[in-house]
Amino acid sequence: MGVSPPSSFAAARAVVLQRIAEAADRSGRDPQGVEVVAVTKTVQPDQIRAAAAAGFRSFGENRVQERQAKAEELATLAAEGAAPGAAAGRPVTWHLVGPLQSNKARRAVELFDVIETVDSLELAQRLDRIAADVRPTARLRVLLQVNVDDDPGKAGFHPAELEREVAAILELRGLGVEGLMTVGRLVDSAEAARETFVSLRAVSERLRALHSSLGAGLSMGMTDDYPVAVEEGATIVRIGRAIFGDRPAGR
Ligand SMILES: *Cc1c(COP(=O)(O)O)cnc(C)c1O
Predict the structure, then answer these.
(1) Is 95 left (phi over 0), alpha (psi -120 to 50) or beta?
(2) Residues in contact with ligand 1 (CB, 6 Å cut-off)
(3) Least enclosed by CB within 10 Å: which of 82, 91, 136, 190?
(4) Per-residue pLDDT averaged across 23-31, rounded?
(5) Contacts of 8 (CB under 8 A, 6+ apart)
(6) pLDDT per residue over 88-135, tens digit each?
(7) Which of 39, 119, 246 best tests ligand 1's pocket when mutated (most atoms within 8 Å of CB)?
(8) Could you tell me the pTM of the whole model?
């Protein structure tokens, strides 16, 4: 479905926050418990800067190289955002929301604040070693990606696999495992995505009953379905097109 570009980033942000507030209200949640990650793949740095000026503080890229290509131009973003306006004082954080190959793990740790796509014990162990080296004073914030739909085309732990490996991941002292993330199946209605979100929350609840150090975060929901994700407990929604408009085909 095509999404028209918003008339302004402030207007886009107001719509997104309003729809989150309504969804939170329907499910008796506090809308403050939902973080919007503005997904900036294919978006140029000047647009990202304008979005930050409108109040967006969390951004997501799905490729390490694309983040790297824009990093220099955006190096001052946090300071700019701390100037006048609603976003004053809040730091900018970058989330990696796409698959991470092990040979890019070091760059990812250098360029991102949160890695949402940890999808194997091996990758977690590698990130743990790198984090100890690159940023020894703070744990690296990560989420574990879960393929709750058992979709062969999707990355992520299968739930049974995660159940076996999660204890070993939680022992890694360099990582702060803040919760779970999923990329839903392509479906033709927001309602059809609900099952995926319910499943992710169920996996989270089951694992957290056994492992208290697993965070309660749930990153789920995108432009076409984030209100449903919020109804089902999302703490992070990853939104691209509703903020920046349609992307070139295939991205
Ligand atoms: C592109 C992307 C998004 C945002 O998708 P929209 O439909 O533009 O909101 C969210 N999550 C991931 C992993 C993505 O790659």
Answers:
(1) beta
(2) 39, 41, 62, 97-98, 183, 222-224, 238-241
(3) 136
(4) 98
(5) 54
(6) 557 899 999 999 999 999 999 999 999 999 999 999 999 999 999 998
(7) 39
(8) 0.94
